Amino acid sequence: MSGGEVCDDGNMVDGDGCAATCVVEPGFTCQGMPSTCTSDDACPVNPCLNGGTCSQGANGVTCTCAPGYVGATCEVATCLVGLEGGRVHSAVLGTDGTVWAWGNNAYGELGDGTMTTRSTPMPVPNLASVVAIDAWDLYTLALKSDGTVWGWGTNNYEQLGTGTASAFETVPRQAATPPGMVAIAAGFSHSMALRNDGTVWAWGWNNDGQLGDGTTTNRPTPVQVQGLTGVTAIAAGHRFSVALRSDGTVWSWGINSDGQLGDGTLTSRLTPAQIPALSGVTAIRAHYAHALALRDDGTVWAWGNNANGALGDGTTTNRSAPAQVLNLADVVAVDVGSLRSAALKGDGTVWSWGKNQYGALGDGSTVNRLLPVQAQGLTGVVMFTAGDTHALALDGDGVLQGWGANAFYQLGSNALGDHTTPIPSLFTCP
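^ that's the sequence the OP posted. Answer follows.
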């Protein structure tokens, strides 16, 4: 639609693109019924500070902040650009390319050269220029700006990809990946990396074909996933893998006993196959035996194991094909933990569903939830992560908070025990 044509945005308010007289106001474009109106001039006056970019839609002005800034207008400086939770440890990525970790360290998962569990966040020594991190189970991966992949912690399935057999590594070791890696994914017993040519590489345990090379042979060093190109994002679960292509389609391979491949069958696969009837996807996540997809319309779709309600469809029935998470819209990010799922909405609130052991949903209880519930006391959240049985979130004031299990200080707090609502972490910017 253009100026002068009929529109209907469901209200009688002027100035939002569709006037009370149901005509498109000058300088706006409206589409659909009910109409969604956007300004032809995205932001006549840019309120976003510190290099933030502005966009304007039916809900008003939104700022996309530059790295190192958060808040409604990017007014708050923060040193963090990434959060990750493992089984009983946590890690964060700083704007300066450093990695900090805390929690259990029995297998060297903090990367500090010791096996000392820590409640206070400490930097990972001799590791710089990191642009992405991922953690699951008892190990951590880091991607450096030069395209190399580094890992530390447990290596019992050779998931660190060094080509050297070892039970664990207490300091970062370089994986034997080809050059040009741009993304990483840590699974339970295997790892993956995305290359700048859109190919995917995998290593570690391969008993169910989760490496996607057409075999069930374990690989101590990376091998290329067969028949998969144009990939933009990857996710590694427990003995299965998921990839998102640039056309918005999702592909999966590995074990399928609970329908975690999402292809409508229970047939395990040694090479990638497309998940039917799933398009317009912008992000994917995978964990123990289920996976999530975020679509470009802000809805979330889930498949796989649903014994504790991790699919958010109001049932405990496993799904071999994607089902929409109910009562959830305007989602901008998703993550998964042990038999549970979580989402960050555009209004800065965090919602979770599924298994609530240790208070991992943050709703003040330990009751499993079949539908999304809001984490209490959190507003203005800009990033979050779901660990195995704990979670972390960074709010718009730059404060890091956590909830769920804290038996090993994985919340970054000395307050041992379970926390069913968020508490502040000891992490502060250096």
